[in-house]
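QUALITY CONTROL LOG
STEP: pairwise intake check
CHECKER ROLE: data steward
CRITERIA: each record must contain a sequence immediately followed by its structure tokens, with no blank fields

ENTRY 1 OF 2
RESULT FIELD BELOW
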Amino acid sequence: MNRCPIGLLVILALGLLWAPLDAVAPSEAPLTRIGLLTSGAGPSPLREGLLQGLYDLGYRDGHHLAVEERYAGGMHERLAALATDLVQREVAVIVALGYAAIRAAQQATPTIPIVMLLGGDPIGSGLIPSLARPGGNLTGLAALSSRLSAKRLALLKEVVPTAAHVAVLFNPDDVSKALDWTQTQVTARALGVRLHPQEVRDPHAFEPAFAAMRQAQADALITFGDVFTLQHRRRIVPLATQSRLPAIYELKAFVEAGGLMAYGPRLEEMYRRVAGYVEKILQGAKPADLPVEQPTQFELVINLTTAQALGLTISPALLSQADEVIR
């Protein structure tokens, strides 16, 4: 009877112990799940910017991580359930776009890290106590667009020097934009402009809002940017054109949809910078210790075709300041 050498038995035993570990190839290892939450409709440009940013950092969708996307389709009342679903799926990080989604994520979990992308004021809206030390489980990027309100109104006056009545279209449900309204009022008083606020919180409110602007004989329009107005830019822009209202927006996407001009942060760059926060958290950083960033790159975009349709002449000096001119 052949006897198996003791040394061979040891090798076989060790092989059995290590086999389960070796059998799990890197591509078959459990994926890190990242939640994406927004009140808008999918697919979101945020997803593409986030994935591109993570790709640049060496991560691959479907190989290292999986993105769980949740879109409320404009119905804020769905956000709580969507946020809870992400929590139950034990995502490692929740990326939340816009005030309503950020608040829903905060209420759904006090522990899972949340990376926000916000156009307004996160302190005044009660999301965090400080930019430098946000505390809790929330950090990310905030555009603090109110700081650009004076510039937008000044640009609008440069294009339409006779504008004395300016309509302001905004979503009152986004309380992070309250400071935008306050700062715009301050600038309007300094420039001798009377503002006509028009609230829109659902898609059925756009036509009545523009009818009210015409009745008020508004000379121009400012539209505050948030997830809701961005989602409905292809309704807002044609209504502004039909109403013969020169309009300035916060985001380039409005001008690409036919709007007159925009001045604000480069949204694509902010999307990619979100990935940096996600990567730091996946490496063990705590959200409470990661300061909230503000954009450092801004762009002025002008649509000359729309200007001509409105009978406006854009000065060479202003055109020379533009980062992009759409013809």
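ENTRY 2 OF 2
RESULT FIELD BELOW
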Amino acid sequence: MNLSQVMKELSSMGSEQTKKNWMKHGAREPFYGVKVGDLKKVVKKIKKNHELSLELFDTGNSDAMYLAALIADENKISRRHLQKWVRKANWYMLSEYSVPWVASESKHGWNLAVEWIASDKEKIASAGWSTLSNYISIQPDDELPIDKLEKLLDLVEAQIHSAANRVRYTMNGFVIATAIFVPTLHEKAVSVAKKIGKVTVDMGGTACKVPVAVDYIDKAIKAGRLGRKRKMARC
């Protein structure tokens, strides 16, 4: 499928109800309102397609941008393109999910994550923490910089309650991810989770809630998920 064919199909899949729902969560025009499940049907037809993913993201259409991440080739995407993507991501489904997924699976994952969390721009900093969470969920422990992750946990403990709104959300997610996916740092992450307690985030009037890190970690451990790595970040 080429760009025009994909955009035509996305247009046919859109619905006003889905569009209305996405807008409550912060989605911005232009977009058709395509359900993620329907986007995955398109992915099955396309598979990975590096050039098409770049074209789709450049449309500025949120549905197309999300699809771009789902079909992106993590082995071909460049640091420059990922930097461009994180700047163009205009709401959290793109900046905290689709772009970090691809970034974390690429060879640029760690370096970009560390760079992004230092940004004074909320969406980029939140993208950085999300990228870190995804990165540690797929990388073997013996390839992770444990000492640096430990320092990042300290940073979260010290700064989370004064951080920008969405950054608080993804910092909280990083503590959870570390506790679940990095057994070496489990006790440390749980300790930080207890210290930070409940994290308040403005969810824009939606029904979405911020997980209490300690409770979320406890449920994951009881489910036998400690140290169980994911095959890929994208889902």
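INTAKE CHECK: passed for both entries
DESCRIPTIVE NOTE, ENTRY 2: The chain has a mean pLDDT of 97.
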